[in-house]
Hints:
By secondary structure, this protein is mainly α. The protein has 2 domains: 2-63, Homeodomain-like (Arc Repressor Mutant, subunit A, Orthogonal Bundle), CATH 1.10.10; 71-195, Tetracycline Repressor, domain 2 (Orthogonal Bundle). Helix content is 71%, strand content 0%. It has helices at residues 2-10, 14-31, 38-45, 49-56, 59-69, 85-93, 98-117, 119-147, 160-175, 181-195. It is elongated and about 55 Å long. The protein starts with a helix and ends in a 6-residue tail after the last helix. The relative contact order is 0.11. Residues 37-56 bind DNA. This is TetR family transcriptional regulator.
Amino acid sequence: MTEVSTARRSRITPEREAELYEAVLELLREVGYDALTMDAVAARTRSSKATLYRQWGGKAELVAKAVRHTKPGGIGLDEIDTGSLKGDLHALTLRSDDCTMEQNSALMRGLAMAIHGNPDLLTAFRSHLIEPEMAEFRRLVQRAIDRGEVRPDNPAIEFMIHMMIGGFAARSMIDELPPTQEFLLSYIDAVVLPALGVASD
């Protein structure tokens, strides 16, 4: 009976979970990962720390899942099938407007710095973001291989997610500008598709 009661107490509705994740992202943007505390999350969300730890185990897991939540259904590749690799990559890019991309870019820059000093955060990000996204990109490329667009022995396949993340991150670091749909679409056509042996015209 006690176990059943505990399970009932720990159950959180999807709406409440989304509210908690939004609050975590707000705090991350305000104070950064290192200064974010479970106490602050509990206060912002009117939750108990016990509930937060019971649901997520700790700060790293909570933050990784909050970031993952901003990408419903993974990065959404399962919902995209335009019939061509170019169409799929363009459709993926157009799912986020310029404002959202700018916010996500700033958030990820801060988290990238935090990951270097927090092995638990790196582990959580690998589990909830990096590995699932790599798997989804592999499925997207496999569809292109099955269609005959990409040669299965093309060495650039293994670096596709590196190219995609690199273009997004380098826009801010090198050009000191936020990533935009226009920039990323041009980058896909000029860099990613040619590397994979796909005509971009």
